[in-house]
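User: I'm putting together a small comparison set for a docking exercise, and I want a reference complex before I start. The sequence is below, and the ligand is S-adenosylmethionine. Could you produce the 3D structure with the ligand included, as structure tokens?
Assistant: Of course. I'll restate your input first, then give the structure tokens for the complex.
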Amino acid sequence: MSIDPETFQVSIEKFSSRGYGVGYVARPQGKAIEVEIAHTLPGDLIHMEMRRKMRPPRKGRLLDVLEPSPQRVEPRCSHARVCGGCSWQQMDYAAQLETKQALVARLFDCPTQPIIPCEEPFAYRNKMEFSFSENRAGQKFLGLMIAQAEPYVFNVDHCHLCKPWFSNVLNAVRSWWESSQILAYHPARDVGTLRYLTLRGCVHTGQKMAVLNIAGRSELSLEEREQKLHRDFVRTVEEAVLGEEIAVFLRIHDANRGKPTQFHEVHLAGPSHMTEELRLSEKTLSFTISPSSFFQPNTLQAEKLYSAALAQIAHFNSPMIYDLYCGTGTLGMAAAAMASQVIGIELSLESVQDARKNAERNQIDNITFYPGDVGKVLTELMGQPTFQRPDVAIVDPPRSGLDPLALHHLKTLRPKGILYISCNPLTQVANVEELVEAGYSLRSLQPVDQFPHTYHIENIAYLER
Ligand SMILES: C[S@@+](CC[C@H](N)C(=O)[O-])C[C@H]1O[C@@H](n2cnc3c(N)ncnc32)[C@H](O)[C@@H]1O
């Protein structure tokens, strides 16, 4: 049986849920075959290849654009045809915005506020993670996943979504690695050392951070690590940023089957954390960011996101606010000036520690943070005699949305207003439907473009009881 790919001419008709183009290959008998092809747009007529025997969901590979969609533009990046990071760089930015806004309106079956665009749709990311990977021949790769071929990695030599220093460090670390004997970590076989390189930068303060993520049970002993890996890695990174100050860390992933992964951070050089500002319309807040703590990945858009979100609850008079899934407490601290009291709940202990320092740093004394799972912490708090119900709940959960216990508590607590910020409108709409059934009305939808050139959408839904 031949498994050679066959080639087809296909019109792209829509986007898949991953932001790739979808077309249909006609069959002499039976239903046409649906195929997803990375880096294509509705309206494109393309030439592509596909293995006919492939099981659904079928993936095609773009060979040529025969007739471009009117929304097609020349991508800025030479990796655009390969990279799994940007799926929409070949799409005009105004069309990206229109598509995202229309998607939210369709999902919620309700008009939205005009999407808030990103003024500079390149070099906006303040955090990138580049994976280490090796093929069977021992060839080394440090970069991003190949579109539709995850977890295969290709060598990224520049990325236009972040500042140029990210690419300089990335290339320097790859050269260092290529000249070393250190192996990439292989998850299936649980062997090797290097997992991924995290780079973080601050827009307003210019501060930088590099974190080398390694496997706990690696072939290097801690002592050897200290001597070789630490010194060489630090030197490589410092040279790549031309002697500018940079916080350098090692983050050890200690994974044991059946147990949660333990992380150990080793501070190797430079400052022990970064400090970033959020310049909001009311005031500027300043934040400590440590290697593991969450910070919105697009700082300038986070400022717009927070201002737009808080404008929705400006009519409350000194409300009691719960900031659920609060990360390093940024949004809760931004809301503190209008609130009588803010309660922040967050799973990551490191983020809560940062949040507490951040509250002190910004002289905010009407905010309290609790570490732990939102549902479980709420159960505990609700059992205390001093418990105070929220007037407003801000929720900003991960992509999976609100878990059943958190949603249950939200319905029991019945805050007057719920400000629901989400990076996944699919789970958001399902949660909002439940809240509407429980007596809430959806008052407004505000999409914000946090991630230009990707299909990701940030959306603020405001509900009132
Ligand atoms: C999208 S981030 C929001 C962070 C914050 N609101 C901000 O704007 O910076 C989601 C946060 O939820 C936290 N998280 C995930 N699952 C959680 C859970 N079950 N309980 C509490 N926090 C959780 C993550 O650690 C992460 O910090």
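The mean pLDDT is 92. The longest strand covers residues 6-15.
User: Thanks, that's exactly what I needed.
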